[in-house]
Amino acid sequence: MSGMPDWDVVVVGAGAGGAAAAWALGQQGMKVLVLDAGPHFDPLADYPQTSPDWDLRDFPQKPGSQASISFAPGQPLAGDEPLLKSWSRGGGPLNLGRLRWMDSYEHVRGIGGTTLHFTGESHRMHPDAMRMRSRFGVAADWPVDYGALEPYYVQAENLIGVAGPAQQGSRWRSQPFPLPPHPLSWAAQTVGRGATVLGLGWQANSRAALSIPWRGRAPCNYCGACQKGCPRGDKGSADVTFIAAAVAAGRCTVRPDSPVVSIEKGKEDRVAAVLVGRRGGALERIAAPRFVLAAGAVETPRLLLASGNLANESGQVGRNFMETVSTLVGALHPQPQHGRRGLPADAICWDYNAPDAIPGVVGGCRFYHASAEAGLVGLANFAVRAVPGWGRAHAAAMRRQYGHALYVGAIGESLSHPASRVDLDPQKHDRFGMPLARIAAWLAAEDIARLRFMASKSRELLAAGGADDVFEAYSSWDRFSASHVFGTCRMGADAGASVVNPDGRSHRWRNLWITDASVFPSSGGGEAPSLTIQALALRTAQRMAQV
Amino acid sequence: LAAQTGKSKGKMTMEWSRRYLLAALAGMPLAALARRGLAALRPRPNAHSARTVSAIVDQLIPAGDLPGAVALGIDQRILADTQLSQSLAAGVAWLDAYARRARAADFLRLDEAGQMAALTAGWAAQDSAVEQLLSTLWYRCATLYYSEAVVQQSYAYAGPPQPVGFADFQRAPR
Q1: Which of A342, A391, A481 sits opposite B169 (nearest CB)?
Q2: Rounded to two decimals, what is the model's pTM?
């Protein structure tokens, strides 16, 4: 034994950012070890989507696949917000209290991370949404611009196999999407007629799902169950794209069920090792010359804070937390739509995505066809959510209405509130004694104004498409349930106001990089973040190899 | 489910619509809610309570163009694998008391119209044990019933997503 580390770099987290970094570092000739706290999932065994009770099954949980999260008390709900209250015809109001319900941080721990259950939207940031401070005086500017990221977007899109249209407005492209866009589903076409009536754009969404065979993977068969887990492997989750490619290249080892519970500081501003929790509470020490953190915007700051306040010289670790600002409106159409057929989120309206596109509100949003994403796709959910009552009247209504639901979703910019942050719960710990991450999330006044616009415009879209019988509506105003989270280890050129530099490297710790959404200085106007996470990770990996 | 409601009220100083939680709305996975329900395991109901549960289930989803819930054994599955909370005894007692006011010995002795009237009154008794019982039974009954293959086969596009997906996704539903 030489006593030298076995790895050139250890990557913590096998989701979008960790997987992309691992692949790119391997391409640079480095030996990479990827650690993930969660398990390995077998798509055909774990989520085949063939059982009669498929409608009741969410993406499966396995031991270790969910982090325990703590939540600070919710924000007081001020005033009456009829457009923003969450309710359904079958269940009544969601929240009868006076505080926002801090419900959930939607994530998956495991090889592939949260991409295992993501819808698979594959978006580039709007260029103007990366300059929120200089243009609008809010959030922070990105220290890299769209042009610097564009080559890495191309690289990621090609490896994943992204299908998309020829043009996406301000998101200029040096190359076309590698795959042709998916055709719109019947239900998306119906909503699209509404968009036309309103004079709005409505186009194929760019999707990490194969429209044609791609690099040995079969194309999508439009089952609509992306969020429950794709058994065919046509959805471009990180396990079947970057991880598979990294392992195939021969320089990457992946270890599931390996939670990193602490990072050990070394000499001369270098990190020495990570400590990995093992069964029975034992810890395994793994040393390496370089470390990449990619555990997401909740677990990455938790790990740093729990490791002796590592990399927090600026005091910004855990600050600037941004969440998923979203609305969802469902309405019944007179004609059957059966919107579960086709890709979820197959169509999108970008018209209000620019930071100054919503009248009187800073920060943009986007609208999309959400019928297959809303969870109301099978009989069981429809029976308890959409149709009130019971008995013969309920059965008759089921016959009349099943398949008639249409949904429009909207996701918007999240402006970090001073009270929004991730810190360590002083009382709750995991089985290794590591404090739990605690999420505090408050909506800024601009966020609430944007939510009103999103909810109102969603109703207009549905009504213009012929679906004006709204039977349920939800928003993040009265319920925190975030899947897109950002900002807790902001990147920037100013070491006093950020955690990592423009290359994703800790300002102080010379062999420590971060490649997840925690580095985002702003959230974007509702763009799905995974592609940008991956583009940033590819860029960071290239810069690492030059150090 | 009761534990979930209690947690919300106790630790988060909020009040939640129990019926909403039972209906598992807004992305809350139904299966996850069902699992939470399992945490509140209670002793099996006595014979009278079990017969009352079956009678309620028969009213919630009666036979029509399809077999009713009882014919598909939904009541027995609920009794076997659903952890009916402490509201069961109180809820049954409420329904029996309603029946006695209607000059019947208990809920089981009411005719169909009488049972429907009792259940309607029970649903309307907000924040009561009987409303909690009926909400729980309805959630379990509806989700189990509409997950039955024989029921799904009678609706278009109601079966599992795979292995064939939807080749006709661009066209009007058949």
Answers
A1: A342
A2: 0.92
